[in-house]
Design goal:
heterodimer, A: 143 residues, Glutaredoxin, B: 61 residues, 2 helices, globular
């Protein structure tokens, strides 16, 4: 059963239309010991990928794909890594991305696919000045 | 921020899914942002305020 209504699909398709870069969503889930959220995460990213031809889902096994786990710093699942034209955007999403987090997913995909940072010039300047590793974790809930 | 600077990684974390992490960072309300395991930002802030808090800058003039 589709997660999105027809009306939502139309709206989201229009919203994501400006995507010009290839967006790969690397989804790390596990088979044994899997939680329900892993199945839901797969459903959610599949729906998003169906909205634009340039969005693809690449399945990764949280247990077996150790090289990619290390490469992208994935320590829990389900996890989503967003790539733009094959390059790591350093945007990660941990959990099923339902509810309000679905909006975050869509916006992350749009950013990766367009490269359009809608931030103030002063913000961009401050961000560019960061010259040491910075790890930001934003905790939220789906509802 | 992560997209704009290769030194920055940004995680969106479902607080209910990862309870151990939520306990570690004392997540009692969302959104709550943790920067480098040390800076805590409660709630959603306007862009400028968020960046100031994350970068621990003084008030923007």
């Amino acid at each position: 059963m589709a997660l999105l209504s027809d009306a939502d699909r139309v709206t989201l398709t229009q919203h994501l239309a400006p995507i010009a870069k290839k967006v790969d969503l690397l989804l790390f889930t596990q088979t044994f010991g899997a939680t329900e959220s892993g199945l839901i995460a797969r459903q959610v990213v599949d729906e998003v990928a169906s909205l634009h031809e340039k969005i693809s889902v690449v399945e990764k096994n949280f247990v077996l794909d150790t090289e990619d786990k290390t490469k992208y710093g994935i320590d829990k699942a389900p996890a989503l890594v967003v790539l733009a034209d094959g390059q790591d955007t350093r945007m990660r999403m941990f959990g099923a991305n339902t509810g309000y987090e679905f909006v975050s997913l869509v916006e992350a995909v749009l950013l990766a696919g367009t490269g359009n940072l809608e931030l103030m010039p002063s913000s961009l300047e401050a961000i560019a000045a960061v010259d040491k590793p910075m790890h930001i974790q934003v905790f939220s809930t789906p509802t | 921020m992560a997209f704009a600077n290769p030194n920055i990684t940004a995680d969106a974390v479902d607080a209910q899914e990862f309870m151990e992490l939520s306990r570690k960072y004392r997540i009692t309300g969302v959104p709550k942002t943790i920067v480098n395991d040390t800076i805590e930002i409660l709630g959603g802030l306007p862009e400028e305020d968020f960046i100031d808090a994350a970068l621990q800058r003084g008030a923007t003039e």
